[in-house]
C-alpha cells in the first residue's frame, strides 16, 4: 500500500466518522429542541389560561361589587320610602287631629265671642238709653278726684332719651306748638338731637322765611338733614342753609326759586353732603359744574325733571375729583339727555348701583347700552314711561348683577327678556312688569328657577293664565315669594289659587283684583295660605258666604273687597252670618276697604266698632246707603277714613241699588278710569320703597 492510498483511506474514514457523529448530534439536538419548545408551549398555554381567568374574575368581581352597591342603594331607598310613608301616615293623623282640635277651639271661641258680642250690644243699648235721659250727667266727687290725679302726669320728668322718642313722631309744626305750652315744654323742644333733621315742607305755608333763617342760624351745628321740598322761599333763605357745615342730606325738590346761585352758596358751605335732591328745579350746567368740585362724597343725586341742563353739564361730572362715589342717580323726565350724555355719565359715575329713569319717552336701547358699558355694578333699575325700550336692553344689561327690575306700560318687551333674566340674573329678588301686554305664560316659566325672587308684580298682564302660573310655582321661586300682584290677570281661575296655597308658604301679600273667574272654591283655597297678611279681592264675584269662609284666616290684617256688589249687610254685620266670623277671628284687622258695596248701611259701622277694635284705615267710597253722620262718628274710631256716598261709576257695572246695569254703554270709554284706578293700587308699600 502506498502512502497516498493510506492518506486517502484515512481521510475517507475520518470524514465518514465525522459525518456519522454530526448526524447523530444533529438528531439528538433537534429532539431536545422539540422537547423544550413543547415545554415552553405548555407553560405559555398555562400562563394564558391563568391571565384569562384572572381577567374574567376581575370583571366578575367588579360586576358583583356594582350589584352589591345597587342592592345597598335599593335597600336604602326602600327604607327611605317606608320611612316617608310612615311620616306621611303620622302627619296625616296629626293633621286630622289638629284640625279637629282647632275646629273645637274655634267653636268654643265662637260661642265665647257670641256671648261677648251680646254683652257689648246690651251695653250699647244701655248707654244709648242713658244718653237719652241725660246728656250731661253730673260727676261724682270720686270721679273728679280721679280725673285730677290723671292730669298730673308731667312728661318733662322723663329721661331725655324717652322725650326724644316721643317728639320724633311729631312734625315740625307740632313741635313748635308744644314749645308754646309752658317753659318746661319749651325746654324739651330745644333738645339739640331733636333738630338733627328739620322738615320745612310740612309747614311751607305757615312759617315765614324769617323764622327759617333764625332756626338755621341757631341750630346750624346740629342740622344734618334739611327738607325744603315745595317751599317758595327767597334766595337769601336758601343761602342760610350754607351755615350748616355738618349738613349731610338736602332736599330742595319742587322749589321754583332755587337757582344756580343758591346752589353755589350751599356747595361752598356744606362740602359733606351725601344726599342731594334737585328734582324739578331750574338748575343749569353751572350747578352741574359745582357738584364734582365741592361734593366729593356725594352718593345720592336726583335730577328728575330738571330740563335746563344739557349733555355738556353731564360732562362736567368728571371734572376734578368727580362724582365717582355716586351710587344712586335719578334722571326721570330729563328728556334732553342724548346717547352722548349717557356716555358722559358712564365715564364719570362708574359705581352706580341704583338707577331710576321714569317718564322718559326719548330713552332708547342705545342709551342704556352706552350707560352699561362702564357701569357694570348696577343692581336695581326702574324704567316706567319708557315705551321705546325693548328686549335689546335686557341683553345689554346682562353684564350687570341686577336684583330689582321695574318696567311699566311697555309693549315692546316680550318673553325673550325673561329668558335673559333666567340666564344672567340669578340674584333677582324684585320684578315689576305691570301693564306689559307682550308677556305670556312662557315668561313665567323662565322665572321659575329664580331662587331669590321675593316680589313679583304682573298687574294688567292680561295674557297670563293658569298654565304659566302653575309652571312658575312648580319651580324653586315659589318658596321665597312674599308678594304677588296679579291684578287684572283675567284668565286666572281657582286652579291658580290652589297652586298658590300648595307652593307658597311665605306669601304675605296677594292681589287678585278683577280676576273674574275666581269662585267660592278659590276663596276656600285662600284660607289655606296661612302666611297671608293682605288680600285684595276688589272687583271679584265674592259674596257673603265667601266672606264667611275667609273669616277663618287668623293672620289677615288687610282686606279689600271694593266693587263687590254681592256683599250686603248680611256679610258685614255682627249676627249669625259672615262678618261675625270675621270679627271673631280676625282680631288684628287693620285695613278694610268696602268701597262700592252699595247695600251696606249704618249698622255695619256699629258692628265694626265692636268686632274689629284694631281697625285703623277704613275706605267707604261709593257706599250710598251709609249716612254722613254715621261716617263722621266712625272717623273718631280710626286713624284714616275715606268716605263718599256718590253713585258708583258705570264701570262698576251696577247701580246705587246693587242691580247690574242692563246696557253696557260707556264701558269702553270708562276703561281708562278703570286702568287709572288700578294703576294707583298697582304697587304695595314695599314696591314704592324700591
From TrEMBL:
Q: Where is this region: Disordered?
A: 634-690
Xref: SMART domains: LRR_CC
Which ranges carry the F-box domain?
Answer: 152-198
Superkingdom of source: Eukaryota
Question: Which keywords appear in this protein's UniProt record, sorted alphabetically?
Answer: Leucine-rich repeat, Ubl conjugation pathway
Q: Name one GO cellular component term.
A: SCF ubiquitin ligase complex
Instruction: Identify the Pfam families for this entry.
Output: DUF7885, F-box-like, LRR_6
CDD domains given in the database record: F-box_FBXL13 (cd22124)
Check the record and name the Gene3D superfamilies matching this protein. Answer: Ribonuclease Inhibitor
The UniProt entry's GO biological process terms, in alphabetical order, are:
SCF-dependent proteasomal ubiquitin-dependent protein catabolic process
- Compositionally skewed regions (Polar residues) per UniProt: 636-647, 660-671
Q: What is this protein called?
A: F-box and leucine rich repeat protein 13
Q: Which organism is it from?
A: Callithrix jacchus (White-tufted-ear marmoset)
Identify the taxonomic lineage of the organism of origin: Eukaryota, Metazoa, Chordata, Craniata, Vertebrata
